[in-house]
């Protein structure tokens, strides 16, 4: 039995911090932030749970479903509001879902990991999964540290994955992890995010290029066959460097980081929902998702868009 994405949605907190906010408070400039990252503003505030519920509710509505139709909730997050219990349990309760609920902590690659997981659970008998990426990194950001404060924002995105499509949702996937890179990006319990930005940048480009090359080979496709690329939104220069190396054009690439900054697990589903709402994907199109993050972890997946027989 196959699967398809039948709903999508996203959520951002109301409060916006522009680059000017940091220019007024730190030794930085709008010009530096824009040129070195591509980010112009980010949304701050709210809870991981509330953003996840809002994005999840929007995805359910798009799919024409109610919470009771869902029999698996996965929330990808590195920033749950509490250490115990998982964020997914309260999302499950708020949306009145059935079946199981679990969190996935794979940092900025978490949503892509979770999509692969949901697809596998559908093969194992789940009918409809709600897959959400939600993070509130601002709670772990040192607003006095210009190297990290300018990068992160809060936000969430969600999709509904349903069984019953003519063929499989996922043509190929690649999941990776490298714990030797753990000291490059981390937050101690109760502490702020610390990062070696330059080294993360270097490794991110290498990991994404390798991972995308692998999924192209596994799916038997080339860059020309990809109608839409949704990369993790960390830095415009990372996206451009990856695209140049794998041959993907920027016109078919989703860039939302100028508006939302780096929202970790929220970034790929947010970007996907934004592109679908803008009419950038048609039934049958191949869509590539690829992300990397703390761990390091990385994940790429090629999916075929459209309901394709889901009734
Ligand atoms: O989701 C995954 C999470 N993280 C990432 O993806 C981050 C990946 N890395 C990056 O995006 C980039 O490395 C940064 C945006 C973090 C930094 O950009 P960069 O071009 O790699 O700069 P750099 O770290 O090499 O620093 C260049 C200079 C340094 O000054 P000196 O040593 O040349 O005098 C920094 O101190 O820029 C300075 N700098 C800043 N200047 C103004 C660092 N941050 C800032 C700032 N404003 N906000």
Structure, explained:
This protein has helices at 19-23, 30-37, 48-63, 87-94, 110-123, 146-149, 197-219, 236-246, 257-260, 267-277; strands spanning 2-11, 15-18, 41-44, 72-76, 100-104, 128-136, 154-165, 170-177, 185-187, 193-195, 226-231, 286-293, 297-304. It has 311 residues and is an alpha/beta fold. The protein has one domain (1-311): 3-Layer(aba) Sandwich (Peroxisomal Thiolase, Chain A, domain 1). Strand 12 (286-293) and strand 13 (297-304) form a beta hairpin. The longest helix is centred in the last third of the chain and has 23 residues, at 197-219. It is globular. The two termini are 14 Å apart. The model has no long low-confidence stretch (mean pLDDT 97).
SSE inventory with pairings:
Elements: E1 2-11, E2 15-18, H1 19-23, H2 30-37, E3 41-44, H3 48-63, E4 72-76, H4 87-94, E5 100-104, H5 110-123, E6 128-136, H6 146-149, E7 154-165, E8 170-177, E9 185-187, E10 193-195, H7 197-219, E11 226-231, H8 236-246, H9 257-260, H10 267-277, E12 286-293, E13 297-304
Helix pairs in contact: 3-4, 7-8
The structure holds oxa(dethia)-CoA.
**What is the count of β-strands?**
13
| Integer average pLDDT | 97
- Given the helix and strand composition, which structural class is it? alpha/beta
Q: What is the N-to-C order of secondary-structure elements (H for helix, E for strand)?
A: EEHHEHEHEHEHEEEEHEHHHEE
What count of domains describes the coordinates? 1
Sum up the overall morphology in one term.
Answer: globular
Instruction: Enumerate the distinct ligands.
Output: oxa(dethia)-CoA
